[in-house]
Amino acid sequence: MKTTYWAMLLMLLPSMAYTQTTEKENEFTMSIQIRPRAEYRNGALMPRNEGEEPAGFINNRARLSMEYKRSDLQMKISAQHVGVWGQDPQIDKNGRFIMNEAWAKLNFGKNFFAQLGRQTLSYDDERILGGLDWNVAGRYHDALKLGYADPNNQLHLILAFNQNDETKIGGTYYVQAGAQPYKNMQTLWYHYKSDYTPFDASLLFMNLGLETGDAATKESHTRYLQTMGTYITYRENGWNVDGAFYYQTGKNQNVQKVSAFMASLQVAYAFPYNLKPTWIVVASADYLSGNSGDSDKYKAFNVLYGTHHKFYGAMDYFYASDFKPGYAPGLFDKRLGLRFRASDKVDMDLNYHHFSTAVKLPGLKKALGSEVDYQINWSVMKDVKLSAGYSIMRGTETMDVVKGGNHKSWQDWGWVSVNINPRVLFVKW
Asked: Where is the Alginate export domain positioned along the sequence (predicted)?
C-alpha cells in the first residue's frame, strides 16, 4: 500500500511544481445556452400566395461550451443540438448532436498567434464574414488563422482547404452541396485603430476557390472569386457613422466573369450622448449591384458568408433567401430607424425599409416594397433575456416576379424568443 502512495505522489510532483510556478495562470470556463424561439410565418423569407395558410413552429438551440485558457494557449469546444420541437421521436437512438466549435489558439509571444480548427469568422460589421447567431445553428468554418495583434493594429491571414472525406486516390473534386460552400479560401484582414482620432478602418481581401469540375467524372476544376474592400467607422459625441465598399472580380461557380460591387453608409445619433443614451436615431443605405443579363460579365454582388439578417430587413427576403431562378436584380435598401431605451433592462427598435432593385428589369418598376420591423428586448434576470418581434411587408408587382407570391396578400411575421445563457463554472488555478 505504501508503494502505491509513493507512486501516486511521484506522478503528482510535476504538476504540483508547475502549479507553484504559474500562479493561477490556468482558467477553465463552462457555459450552457438554451434558446427556444416560437415563430409565426405568414410571408417570411418568401412572399405567400393568396389563400396559403400561415405556418408556426418552435425551434431550439441547446449548446454546451467549454473553454480553457493560459498565457500561451487557449482552447474551446462547443457542442449543440438544434432543431424544431417535436421533430425527433421520444426514443431516439440517432440524436443530432454536433460539434459547432472546436479550436485551439497558440500564442507565440510578441503579439503573434495561430488559431486552428472549427471556428466562427466574424469581422467588422459581419457584412462579408459573420457568425449568423440569429440562425438556430450559427455559421462556422474549418480554418487556420494566423495573426498579429497590438492595441492599434490587427492582421489576420485565414486559410481553409475543404474535402468531403478522406481519400486515397482520385484527385480533389469537392461536392459543396451539404458541406462547406467553398473548396478553399485565403483571406487577409487588417484593422487599424487610432489613439488620436475617432476613426477606425479595416481592409479585407478574400480569394475564394469554388469547385466547377465534372460531377460525373469527378474531374476537379477550381475557379477563383476575389472580394476586396474596406470598412470605416467614426464614433464621437453621440455620432456613430460607418461605411463599407467591396468589389468582386474573378469567376463564379457558373464559370462567368464577375464584376460586381456593394456600398453601404449608416449614420446614427444617440442622445443624450454624454449619459446612457435614451434614444438612437439611425438612417442607412445599402446598394448591392445586380445582373441584368445585357453584359458579358456577371454583375450581381455575392454577399458570401455574412450575417444578412441584421441588414436587409428582419423578414429575410433578401440574401438570407434566394430570388427566383433566372433573377439576380441586386438591391437598393433605404432604412430609417429608432431605438428607445426604456430602462436598464428594456429597449426596443422600430425600423422602416424601402427596397428596390439595383437594375431595371424589362417592363417592371424598380420598387420592390416596404417593410416595418419592431423588436423589444427585456433582460428578465442575469443571463436570461426575453425578445419578441413583429414585421410586415407590403410588396409590389416586381416583388411577385423576382421573389414569387402575391403582393396583394397580407405578409407578416412574428416571433418570441428566450435566451438563457449562464456561465455555470469558472475555475482558476
From this structure: 29-356
